[in-house]
Amino acid sequence: MTEDIVRQIAEAEDVAVRRKQEAEEQAKSVIANAEERAVQTLRSAEEVCKAFEDSQLKTARAQADEQTAKTLAEAQSSAKVYCSKALEKAEPCVMEIVGRILRGDC
């Protein structure tokens, strides 16, 4: 009877050791899978962020180009008006100087 009890205890210990080993192997597998999924999730997030950054840069560049063109057009229009007014004011003075030169009244 004592031998049966000792044998049962030994068998139970063997079963416990096997189950512990199986559990450790399963835990390693679960951890490896989780780490792989984490790496894949990180890569995916990096790709999404990079694509978002690229699209935001394109949008910002397009807006900047549009604003630059608008500002340049406004500046050119303003410059044309300014030059036109300056020429209108300068024309009588120029004509007077040319007249003096032609008449010899310098």
Question: Main traits of this protein?
Answer:
single chain; mainly alpha; 0% strand
Structure in words:
With 106 residues, this protein is mainly α. The protein has one helix spanning 2-103. The longest helix is centred in the middle third of the chain and has 102 residues, at 2-103.
Topology:
Elements: H1 2-103
Quick structural overview:
With 106 residues, the protein is mainly α.
Helix content: over 70%
Structural class: mainly alpha
Largest sheet: none
Bin the strand percentage: under 5%
The first-to-last residue Cα distance is 144 Å
Order of helices and strands: H
Contiguous uncertain segments of 5+ residues: none
Shape category: rod-shaped
Rg from alpha-carbon coordinates? 45 Å
Number of helices: 1
Report mean pLDDT, rounded to a whole number: 92
Q: How many beta strands in the DSSP annotation?
A: 0
